[in-house]
Design brief:
single chain, alpha+beta, Rossmann fold, Tumour Suppressor Smad4, 2 domains, 10-stranded mixed β-sheet, 6-stranded antiparallel β-sheet
Length: about 300
């Protein structure tokens, strides 16, 4: 039986530009006032998943709080999969996509209130080549942007803006073959997004029909840059020109890069060049505390 008074806080010390000392202070104050036994783990980039799993087994917390970006959140979700532990999110990454989908405030105090609330839902994940994605993964343009951003010496939204300009000048389209349970599609692509969620961290809705609780994920296929189709996405429209943009809801998909390898990222973590991806839905993967009155991805 889980101890109801134990909480584990996992912090990525190098994510984003949020002051982690403030997160420590606010979390210590919150847990102390409510009588929780708080344990803290700062990620190191080495064997973090295994270490968190061991801590979960030894501590057996009721809740695990995550202060980091989408990659850190996905890693913690993998560590607590098949448990009853509730995950609470404190936005602290450079691009907090999951937080945007959940409608979480950037306020640490408000995020902590949500993290300890009883409004909990089970969300899906996607298994991609054996790795877990809770949010948005892709091959192509955005993955190259993630790589360029990771390689740069700037952080925050300014860093993203700078690297976007460089990425647009470097990127080349690629040929892709996509096989789902219902169809086979072959096309040239600028980007193929494997979308469990709806929004990027900027708040831009890239997957208008996204729902993290419906047992499906979407493939968003952009064949080239187009102002009108991009404007439709921003407006929440799904009436796309199929010659430029397609969105397909699936439970599984195989994505093959036909002519050359493409850059690949999972939840904001660059994974390298790939020729082939296998993606499968993992329904009801993890329990997450979310704001009252919100539905993930909507």
């Amino acid at each position: 039986m889980l101890s109801e008074r134990k909480v584990l806080l996992v912090v990525n010390p190098i994510s984003g530009d949020v002051n982690k000392d403030v997160i420590f202070e606010r979390t210590i104050e919150k847990t102390g006032a409510e009588g929780y036994d708080l344990r803290i783990y700062s990620t190191t980039g080495k064997n973090d998943l295994e270490t968190i799993r061991e801590m979960v087994e030894n501590i057996r917390p009721e809740r695990i709080l995550v202060a980091g970006g989408d990659g850190t959140i996905s890693m913690v979700a993998e560590a607590i999969h098949k448990t009853d532990i509730i995950m609470g999110i404190i936005p602290a990454g450079s691009a907090n996509g999951l937080s945007a989908d959940f409608g979480l405030s950037g306020s640490i105090d408000e995020a902590l209130e949500v993290a300890f609330s009883d409004n909990v839902t089970a969300i899906d994940a996607v298994c991609i080549n054996g790795e877990v994605s809770l949010h948005l993964s892709d091959i192509g343009l955005n993955a190259l942007l993630v790589k360029n951003y990771e390689d740069s010496d700037t952080r925050g939204k300014l860093g993203y803006a700078r690297e976007m300009l460089r990425t647009l000048s470097e990127h080349e389209n690629f040929q892709v073959k996509i096989t789902t349970e219902n169809e086979v599609l072959e096309t040239e692509a600028l980007i193929v997004i494997i979308a469990n969620a709806k929004k990027y961290g900027t708040g831009v809705s890239i997957n208008p029909i996204g729902d993290m609780c419906d047992g499906f994920f979407e493939l968003v296929i952009a064949k080239r840059l187009d102002f009108i189709e991009t404007a439709k996405i921003l407006a929440g429209s799904t009436d796309f020109n199929p010659e430029i943009m397609q969105v397909i809801s699936v439970k599984k998909a195989k994505i093959e890069c036909v002519d050359k390898a493409a850059h690949f990222q999972i939840d904001g973590e660059y994974k390298g060049l790939v020729k082939e991806l296998d993606a499968d839905i993992l329904a009801g993967y993890v329990r997450v505390a979310i704001p009252w009155g919100t539905v993930p991805g909507q």
